[in-house]
Fold this protein.
Amino acid sequence: NAGVMQNPRHLVRRRGQEARLRCSPMKGHSHVYWYRQLPEEGLKFMVYLQKENIIDESGMPKERFSAEFPKEGPSILRIQQVVRGDSAAYFCASSPTAGQGQETQYFGPGTRLLVL
Amino acid sequence: SQQGEEDPQALSIQEGENATMNCSYKTSINNLQWYRQNSGRGLVHLILIRSNEREKHSGRLRVTLDTSKKSSSLLITASRAADTASYFCAMTRGNTPLVFGKGTRLSVIA
């Protein structure tokens, strides 16, 4: 059973471009979470999704950022018109059941975004 | 804020010694989890302790939870160079998302 997959592992964008990050949860997991980590910092929650639904997006900036988890295919975190401050590591995690607090989350290797 | 705070921020020990890291939080929780992150990698789940538990073991790891003091500790016994990593506590309350502290950076010197 493959773990959480994220791609690309590294992404370089120029200011103003779009960044698209993909996450495939573990097989059988229908809950996906996105986190952002700045250097020397802990992870900050961004958004929690189930298939075709956004459950909690309280940690996601209201502008330029969007996330989806379609019925088929990976979850996508999209950052439009990137700025240098978006440079960070973005981690995806998945869990098998409802209730973020009740089950362990399994993390992917992350996508490291660098905005030039 | 429910954010946890790990203490110390950095810890350097010799191989074979024990390493103790602490985590404090401010509100009531359902459970508390510890994760490890190697440099440049994702997080690996180590252990989960529920609010009605006081102590849990997993291999060389021992976690305690004191809900009256709102604190938890992670003990790694007989440390190895491979234990070098950052260690994060994360806590949940109901359906809130995982909230992470800034981590403790552990260096185990061979």
